[in-house]
């Protein structure tokens, strides 16, 4: 039996700049997250992944404008005012950021930064808050947690700071964790530790998670389902194994072909030509047109809908057969 | 809080500063052209009388001996007698000092009250209409010398509109606030222009910082995000600048107090210079050095209280 949907994002659109000529960072994005599920949100820098997460929490405002529906357990967060939203933010839905070095306030002790979260979202008294803070630091694997409450962020290493940030995010037992590239800024050896930590905590606490990353290997290792983003739009979604094993969208295919997998040394990898379009230069049609090996004249003008395939998968592409043919011909040529 | 050892270390650092200041004061006065003994003597004094004065002042001794005597006297609070006022220098300075300190604090408070809220307003909508208006007005303030702002305020607010007194000093605290508003304001306009620029820039930077976004994502109230996370971080660099400009402001009192006829140590310094009252000039220079050092010390203490990374002594 499938678990119930906790978060349903419908036609999310996030704009910046003047209302007459807006820069659209997220454009018509829809997805669902089920209870206890880990959804991977994949894409290059600037594809709108982080803005999507920040839109869900309503922290892109006042500079950004958010449209569409963000249904959290049936309640539309996009329609809530700032005060009501604050009761969800950090309490039911928490977020961790990419940069552990700059995401903790350098002037405040780690203990205070955990406790202010507890103060905002729980009824615990000072003594209980302190006990809970120790418990949280302990839970994320910080040695001698009790003695470290009075320490400042600069007294921790990068990996330890990321653990502190996770502890802060988990302080009020959130039901959904938004993780914005939580391992990108860390050493490779630490990346794996942190990823495992997040994964095991999510499982232990029965917490759903959206994991933003640009690393397909991370997705393969941790996520139940994956949504691939490009130019502020979704291009492909589905079960992780299905998407990675049988990608359909030319962008996903390109991403996967650019990762070395079972190839002899010195085999040239596929690389997607060009760079993502600027927000101010998005084509009316498919955002990937300019870099797509199989794009036709219709791709630039007509936007492909995110169409359902079998097995709960969705792909937004006008040229699925051509894409499949192009990439299988490349495989065969090897 | 900064540790006691940090405070002590910082205090010890002041000692060499003071020694250097004393060497400078001592030498400058002795290297200046003009003989203080002649200046002190009556016009028709004989050579013998002048020699007597020189002996009384100890000016016939070799320089190193004079210096040791000078340091010893200074440390015991004896700064000599003012030639012009015919009274002990220490007494004269102590009588005038409160006025200057009051004026300095008054203008700093005014500057913070002016610059703080406006910097917030400007930073909240960077490059918006309010931001541009605020910055242009204060740019004008910054490009005018303090004495000119002072004269403008005097002419318009005091002489034409008769809203405030032209000068002088009051008898009670409130009276002082009223009497000193124009000099305080003219200094404050300049200082606040500097603070505003700096605070606006750091606010814009901090508002965008990851830790502020993270604080918002934690669901903290806007008040806590603003005070605990934004303001405190933005203040770190502004406090340094404020300390420096208060130091600067001390020497600025020379001009302001003269323009507004405020009986403080600044105006006293100017009078002492014109009268070649060497003991008084020495004493006042030392007083300014002490004031500036105390301000810098306080700045460092506040900074290390704000920023734990500065606490390693």
TrEMBL record, chain A:
Keywords on record: ATP-binding, Cell membrane, Membrane, Nucleotide-binding, Transport
SMART domains the UniProt entry points to: AAA
Entry keyword Cell membrane: yes
Biological process annotations from GO: peptide transport; transmembrane transport
Major subcellular site: membrane
Annotated localization: Cell inner membrane
Organism: Shinella granuli
Database matches in InterPro entries: AAA+_ATPase, ABC_Ni/Peptide_Import, ABC_transporter-like_ATP-bd, ABC_transporter-like_CS, Oligopep_ABC_C, P-loop_NTPase
Assigned protein family: Belongs to the ABC transporter superfamily.
One GO cellular component term: plasma membrane
KW Transmembrane helix (keyword) present: no
Topology in membrane: Peripheral membrane protein
Coiled coil: none
Residue ranges constituting the ABC transporter domain according to the UniProt record: 7-256
Name of the featured protein: Oligopeptide transport system ATP-binding protein
One Pfam family recorded for the sequence: ABC_tran
Listed GO MF terms: ATP binding; ATP hydrolysis activity
From TrEMBL, chain B:
Major subcellular site: membrane
InterPro entries recorded: BPD_transp_1_N, MetI-like, MetI-like_sf
Subcellular location: Cell membrane
Swiss-Prot/TrEMBL keywords: Cell membrane, Membrane, Transmembrane, Transmembrane helix, Transport
One cellular component (GO) term of this entry: plasma membrane
GO biological-process terms attached to the record: transmembrane transport
Domain ABC transmembrane type-1: 97-299
Membrane topology: Multi-pass membrane protein
Sequence intervals crossing the membrane: 7-29, 101-124, 136-157, 177-196, 230-250, 280-302
Source organism, top-level taxon: Bacteria
PROSITE patterns per record: ABC_TM1
Similarity comment: Belongs to the binding-protein-dependent transport system permease family.
Protein name: Peptide/nickel transport system permease protein
Species, as recorded: Shinella granuli
């Amino acid at each position: 039996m499938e678990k119930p949907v906790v978060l349903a994002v419908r036609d999310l659109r996030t704009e910046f700049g003047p209302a007459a000529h807006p820069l659209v960072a997220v454009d018509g994005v829809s997805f669902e997250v089920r209870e206890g599920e880990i959804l991977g949100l994949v894409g290059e820098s600037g594809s709108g992944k982080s803005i999507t997460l920040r839109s869900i929490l309503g922290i892109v405002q006042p500079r950004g404008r958010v449209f569409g529906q963000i249904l959290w357990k049936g309640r539309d967060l996009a329609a809530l005012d700032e005060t009501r939203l604050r009761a969800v933010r950090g309490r039911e839905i928490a977020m961790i950021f990419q940069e552990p070095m700059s995401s903790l306030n350098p002037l405040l002790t780690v203990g205070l930064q955990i406790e202010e979260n507890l103060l905002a979202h729980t009824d615990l008294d000072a003594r209980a808050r302190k006990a809970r803070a120790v418990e949280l630091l302990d839970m994320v694997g910080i040695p001698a947690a009790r003695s470290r409450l009075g320490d400042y962020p600069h007294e921790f290493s990068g990996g330890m700071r990321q653990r502190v940030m996770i502890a802060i995010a988990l302080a009020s037992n959130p039901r959904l964790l938004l993780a914005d590239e939580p391992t990108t800024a860390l050493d490779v050896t630490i990346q794996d530790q942190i990823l495992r930590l997040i994964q095991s905590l999510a499982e232990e606490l029965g917490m759903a998670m959206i994991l933003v990353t640009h690393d397909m290997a991370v997705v393969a290792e941790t996520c139940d389902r994956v949504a691939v983003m490009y130019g502020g739009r979704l291009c492909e979604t589905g079960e992780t194994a299905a998407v990675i094993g049988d990608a359909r969208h030319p962008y996903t295919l390109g991403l996967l072909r650019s990762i070395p997998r079972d190839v002899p040394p010195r085999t040239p990898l596929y690389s997607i030509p060009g760079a993502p379009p600027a927000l101010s230069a998005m084509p009316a049609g498919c955002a990937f047109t300019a870099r797509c090996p199989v794009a036709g004249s219709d791709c630039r003008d007509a936007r492909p809908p995110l169409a359902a395939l079998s097995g709960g998968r969705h792909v937004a592409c006008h040229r699925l057969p051509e894409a499949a043919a192009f990439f299988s011909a490349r495989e065969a040529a090897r | 809080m900064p540790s006691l050892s940090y405070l002590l270390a910082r205090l010890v650092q002041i000692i060499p500063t003071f020694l250097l200041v004393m060497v400078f004061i001592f030498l400058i006065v002795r290297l200046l052209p003009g003989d203080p003994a002649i200046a002190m003597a009556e016009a028709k004094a004989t050579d013998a009388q002048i020699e007597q004065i020189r002996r009384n002042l100890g000016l016939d001794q070799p320089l190193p001996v004079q210096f040791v005597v000078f340091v010893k006297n200074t440390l015991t609070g004896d700064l000599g007698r003012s030639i012009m006022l015919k009274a002990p220098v220490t007494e004269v300075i102590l009588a005038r000092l409160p006025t200057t300190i009051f004026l300095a604090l008054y203008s700093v408070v005014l500057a913070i009250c002016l610059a703080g809220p406006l910097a917030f307003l400007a930073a909240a909508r960077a490059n918006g209409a309010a931001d541009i208006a605020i910055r242009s007005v204060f740019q004008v303030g910054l490009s005018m010398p303090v004495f000119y702002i002072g004269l403008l305020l005097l002419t318009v607010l005091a002489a034409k509109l008769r809203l405030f007194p032209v000068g002088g000093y009051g008898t009670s605290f409130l009276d002082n606030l009223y009497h000193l508003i124009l000099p305080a304001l003219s200094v404050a306009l300049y200082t606040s222009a500097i603070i505003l620029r700096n605070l606006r820039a750091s606010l814009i930077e901090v508002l965008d910082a990851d830790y502020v976004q993270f604080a918002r994502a934690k669901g903290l109230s806007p008040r806590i995000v603003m005070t605990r996370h934004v303001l405190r971080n933005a203040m770190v660099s502004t406090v340094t600048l404020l300390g420096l400009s208060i130091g600067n402001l001390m020497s600025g009192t020379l001009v302001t107090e003269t323009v507004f006829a405020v009986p403080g140590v600044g105006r006293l310094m100017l009078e002492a210079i014109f009268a070649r009252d060497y003991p008084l000039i020495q004493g006042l220079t030392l007083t300014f050095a002490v004031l500036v050092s105390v301000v810098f010390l306080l700045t460092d203490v506040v900074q290390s209280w704000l920023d734990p990374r500065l606490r390693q002594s």
